[in-house]
Design brief:
The chain is mainly alpha-helical. The protein is built from three helices and two strands. It has a single domain, classed as BFD-like [2Fe-2S]-binding domain (Arc Repressor Mutant, subunit A, Orthogonal Bundle). A two-stranded antiparallel ribbon has the order 1-2.
């Protein structure tokens, strides 16, 4: 699903960055340019990062 229409960025692209260690909207913005134009996607992009990082913590805790 598209998160940022201005830059044509999808949730899968943001998740891929999170897999590489990105943990904040600032990092996503620096790498993909999310929320640099109109800014409407910022909250949604932040939620994608938050959901991915919380799932990763849960999985890592289960395997520890």
């Amino acid at each position: 699903m598209y998160v940022c229409i201005c830059r044509r960025i999808t949730d899968k692209q943001i998740e891929a960055l999170c897999k590489d260690g990105v943990t904040s909207l600032a990092d996503v913005r620096a790498r993909l340019g999310v929320a640099n134009n109109c800014g409407r996607c910022g909250q949604h992009a932040r939620e994608v990062v938050k959901q991915f990082t919380s799932q990763t913590r849960f999985v890592n805790a289960a395997t520890a």
